[in-house]
């Protein structure tokens, strides 16, 4: 028994701590909204919301924890009501509740939803209870079918969007280095402009050039023969190269 | 060509250095590029200026130098009386700090019999092509966006006998000025930055392209 009480106390403490955290975060956000509304950046508001959602998650996790005793089974009893100011209560509630009187107690210790909410909830509950299990199953199936259809639609949209995005990224290539090189070599050397006929005349010119070079080499050789002794190996190379006038470019 | 214009050109004779950057743009992005250039360049409110030229490249061989001397004769296919003779030097890449390529550049307006004239000097036509495109200018910078066409019949520049060499357009940014005006390179670099990533204007080493060619 004592163990359970201890556990309850411990749980309550951590609950209070978490709720306090959430309260502080909300207060911070409110202060920001009130005082910095003209310079407030949307990302920082989102950060605040993210913080709140995280804190609510931790609270939920705490409540689902196995070690937490079922709080539903605990009862809170108002022992005494009084119309006088209670300084202790005032301090705890940050001056929100000044006295523990008949006005506030029904609100704070309420276990049912507000009457208006209850009113709106009632017809829904009535309808739900009037349904036969078969009909309910039917409706559930219809609902599942619809949702899976919607999921399919969303997925196909996602695919087409991704495709488009891919196409866009491939379109984003606006220039190509290979084309630049092709164009430059065309402008600089005439590659691609020359027809095959022209190339032949070019070859013929090259050939005549070769012959001229050959003659020059021979003359040089003769000239050298009068002077220094020419290395025979070098001459051979020259002759060897000159026997192939149709060198490819 | 009007003699007074020729005279004017020679008065400005010291402008023989071209600073330039080159790149290309694919056909599907041409419109985007033209619109951007319209916005960036002078006279944004006018229609962009287009050109259609026929260029003949003449070589003369010299036995002492392996590479031939190249002269380019260009004339407009729209304003048929506009002829020019152009010499382009070898592009210098320079060191990394230099933002652009540099080459010597001599361009001279001529009469329409220039091809015959240099032919008689001993030049031989190596190849010819048609080039069409747009040009823009911003300050002293000139930007050309041009497409090159191969001529299937020698001397015939009509549309049905020419075919494209490459679907992309060549984009050139250039400034012709006197030598030693390196500061202009920085302006060009800044301008080129504004065309990224649509077009990457770079210093492309021409020697590498010519080497890949042989």
Automatic annotation (TrEMBL), chain A:
Key word Transferase present in the record?
no
Q: Does the keyword Coiled coil apply?
A: yes
What is a GO molecular function of this protein?
transcription coregulator activity
Q: Name the segments for region: Disordered.
A: 193-249
Please state the protein's primary subcellular location. Answer: nucleus
| Family from the record | Belongs to the Mediator complex subunit 8 family.
Oligomer status and interactors: Component of the Mediator complex.
Protein name stated in the entry: Mediator of RNA polymerase II transcription subunit 8
From TrEMBL, chain B:
* Compartments (UniProt record): Nucleus
Family matches, as InterPro entries:
Mediator_Med18 (IPR019095)
Q: Which UniProt keywords apply?
A: Activator, Nucleus, Transcription, Transcription regulation
Q: Extract one GO cellular component term from the record.
A: core mediator complex
User: Subunit comment for this entry?
Assistant: Component of the Mediator complex.
Q: What does this protein do?
A: Component of the Mediator complex, a coactivator involved in the regulated transcription of nearly all RNA polymerase II-dependent genes. Mediator functions as a bridge to convey information from gene-specific regulatory proteins to the basal RNA polymerase II transcription machinery. Mediator is recruited to promoters by direct interactions with regulatory proteins and serves as a scaffold for the assembly of a functional preinitiation complex with RNA polymerase II and the general transcription factors.
Any idea what this protein is called?
Mediator of RNA polymerase II transcription subunit 18
